[in-house]
Description:
The protein has 165 residues and is mainly α.
Amino acid sequence: MTVEEFEEFYAQTVTRLTGQLYVMTGDLHEAQDVVQEAFVRGWSRRRQLDRDGRPEAWIRTVAWRMAVSRWRFGRRSADAWKRSGAPPHVEGPGPEQLALVEALRELPAQQRRIMTLHYLCDLMVEQIAGETGLSVSTVKTHLSRGRTALAHRMQDPRVEEAPGA
């Protein structure tokens, strides 16, 4: 099946196949997702689809199997949650954490990445250099500049400057 033939096949069958899968699954969005994914998989097998002579059946079967697989996964996940109980309640971030995240967002991407690797992932400077492909001295420079930038952005508003300062 040539590219043009596959595109024509898609145009002629996608609506019909989506409707069929919608009826089978009862979920329009799920039907759209699995049919699109089946066409993506079919694209790489378009020559085989042509030889088999039943490309529409192949797409429908693949889409159905994906829907069933997703359904099974969802059911297993739900069963696991029932067995283990609801997850514990976790408080949302406080004002300090929100301020930190906002300040980090203002840093250049590379600096933010290095600060995160060092302070949140607890990586040593040498490990960061190995992971990022940067030199040790460049990592140290990013850490120094990042700390300086955060210090200016994260000044505690409750602390007033001394008069005349």
